[in-house]
Specification:
It is built from 15 helices and 28 strands. The chain has a seven-stranded mixed beta sheet with strand order 16-19-20-15-14-22-23, sandwiched between helices. A six-stranded mixed beta sheet has the order 11-10-9-12-13-26, sandwiched between helices. Strands 7-8-28 form a three-stranded antiparallel beta sheet. A hairpin with a 6-residue loop joins strand 5 and strand 6. Helix 4 packs parallel to helix 5. The chain binds NADP nicotinamide-adenine-dinucleotide phosphate (NAP) and glyceraldehyde-3-phosphate.
Length: about 475
């Protein structure tokens, strides 16, 4: 009976050494739904002493796990992928309630994650080394051969955000495990219940005790403590730039993979297919109410086509269904009131700094309706800051040169999209954009999950994506053979 062990009554447990347990702190954190504020359950507020125990367990378990053949580890991941597919309705229903994600997007998050785990298992089987010959190098007088392979890093501390609890937890767990690491996962507090369900499926699939552990609790008590802990060898974090920078400052010499905030732009040129650009910008700005790192957070329009684009864009945005995630509304409540308050501040500031409000449907507590601002300039906070809500920001410019300048005028560097029918121009502009990925004729998008997802500037450090994550979660080790000359 899946999920029988993760809770008693309404109290969820945490996972250590293959066992679901209550915290000795006897403290819990209530998780309420952003949809109707109903109590979904209580999670454990794990304390620092328990963190010590979890990490020493993970450290011990990692050694044996790394000795298993990669094919055995892959078999367990494949089983976890199957179990996730089998339980997709249960997990998706949890996402709907816990993070107010629309039904179809919740199902997609689970399905895409099952694919990610299976593909990671498959990619792990191709984790081959190489043989280097020394003689080809200048002045290498003896015959030398280097056997170069990849070995696990050790204990990976995985920290995931609220907006993709399933996908962005598993995109760390799966590559870490296939590479022979053990994992201590600290999910975001809102989203933690969904993640506990996932962890149970990995156990059921055969992950041995201690290889995957999940701690829940207050970041103010255990966040910094986990990050600085001597038994953590690597931190894979996805979340805000503010917390990411704090982690980078505290981590010392630990390996780091950081996926942080974004302010992705799309540039729409004069020769673009405007209907396509409008469609992609509507879903880019408003899907999951704009709570995606890769949401389109700036639309940069060449003046000559701006009015035509805006006319179509406003009409399409106006049709979006607002409502409950279980009814598959397009725009659903935001994660909490603070997120909605932050948007209020950005909107007030835009109103005070010359931007033109084209749409602002409503605000009811944590629920914002679709909002569109035109004529946003660098005087406005909306030009610079991540809105993380259903707010479209339109910036008008005179030509392509200015478009590139404005797109690059950001502390962030995830993705930029270019809409044009001139492929040569698209490539030329792409080469000048300061981001990890350029999308031609498409909205910014992390997936498919096997693509590299590179973060630059304040958007992070390193590259994720199935093969790239496995590389990041291993280190190179060489054994050199000195042959008789
Ligand atoms: P967040 O507030 O930074 O939280 C992310 C995670 O960090 C949560 O698990 C949080 O736990 C934990 N945390 C907070 N303080 C910590 C500390 N001192 N030490 C260790 N962990 C700590 O981000 P969020 O609100 O969940 O997610 C939204 C942000 O994530 C946006 O900025 C978005 O752009 C970014 N994001 C980026 C990507 C990407 O791939 N680049 C993907 C998704 C999201 P608690 O919940 O318990 O505080
Ligand atoms: O929030 C950040 C996610 O990594 C975005 O993923 O582009 O597939 O929605 P997505």
């Amino acid at each position: 009976m899946p999920f029988a062990y993760i809770k008693e009554g309404n109290n969820y447990k945490y996972l250590v050494d293959g066992k679901w347990v209550f915290s000795s702190s006897e403290k819990t954190i209530g998780i309420n739904s952003p949809v109707d504020n109903s109590l979904l359950g209580k999670i454990q507020a794990v304390n620092q002493k328990e963190v010590d125990n979890v990490l020493s367990t993970a450290k011990k378990a990692q050694k044996k796990w790394a000795e298993l053949p990669v094919s055995a580890r892959a078999e367990i991941l494949n089983k976890a992928s199957e179990l996730l597919s089998k339980n997709k309705e249960v997990i998706a229903n949890q996402l709907i309630k816990e993070i107010a994600k629309a039904r179809s997007l919740s199902i997609t998050e689970v399905e895409r994650t099952a694919d990610l785990i299976r593909s990671t298992a498959e990619e792990g089987l191709r984790m081959n080394g190489e043989l280097l010959e020394g003689e080809c190098f200048y002045k290498c007088e003896r015959k030398k051969r280097a056997l170069v392979g990849r070995v696990p890093i050790g204990v990976v501390l995985a920290i995931s955000p609220f907006n993709y609890p399933v996908n962005l937890s598993c995109s760390k767990i799966a590559p870490a495990l296939i590479a022979g690491n053990s994992v201590v996962l600290k999910p975001s507090t809102q989203g933690a219940i969904s993640v506990l369900h996932i962890a149970e499926l990995f156990l059921e699939a055969g992950v041995p005790p201690g290889v995957l552990n999940v701690v829940t609790g207050n970041s103010s008590e255990i966040g910094d403590y986990l990050v600085k802990h001597k038994d953590v060898d690597m931190i894979a974090f996805t979340g805000s730039t503010k917390v990411g920078k704090r982690i980078a400052n505290l981590a010392g010499m630990k390996h780091l993979l950081l996926e942080l905030g974004g302010k992705d732009a799309v540039i729409v040129l004069e020769d673009a297919d405007l209907d396509l650009a409008v469609r992609e910008c509507v879903s880019g700005c408003f899907s999951y109410s704009g709570q995606r790192c890769t949401a389109v957070k700036r639309i940069i329009l060449i003046n000559s086509i701006a009015d035509k684009f805006i006319d179509k864009f406003v009409k399409e945005a106006d049709k979006l269904k607002h409502g409950k995630p279980e009814e598959d509304a397009y725009i659903t409540p935001l994660i909490n009131n603070e997120a909605a308050d932050n948007i209020q501040e950005l909107i007030d500031d835009a109103n005070n700094n010359g931007a033109k409000k084209l749409m602002c449907k409503f605000r009811e507590r944590n629920f914002w309706g679709a909002t569109i601002f035109d004529n946003v300039t660098s005087k406005c906070r909306l030009y610079h800051e991540e809105q993380f809500g259903p707010v479209a920001v339109i910036i008008r410019i005179k030509d392509e040169k200015e478009a590139i300048k404005v797109a690059n005028d950001s502390e962030y560097g995830l993705q930029t999209g270019i809409f044009t029918n001139n492929i040569n121009k698209a490539f030329d502009i792409a080469s000048k954009l300061e981001v990890g990925t350029v999308q031609i004729n498409g909205r910014s998008d992390r997936g498919p999950d096997n693509f590299p997802f590179s973060c630059i500037k304040s958007s992070g450090i390193g590259t994720q994506g199935i093969k790239y994550s496995i590389e990041a979660m291993t280190r190179i080790k060489s054994t050199v053979l000195n042959l008789p000359s």
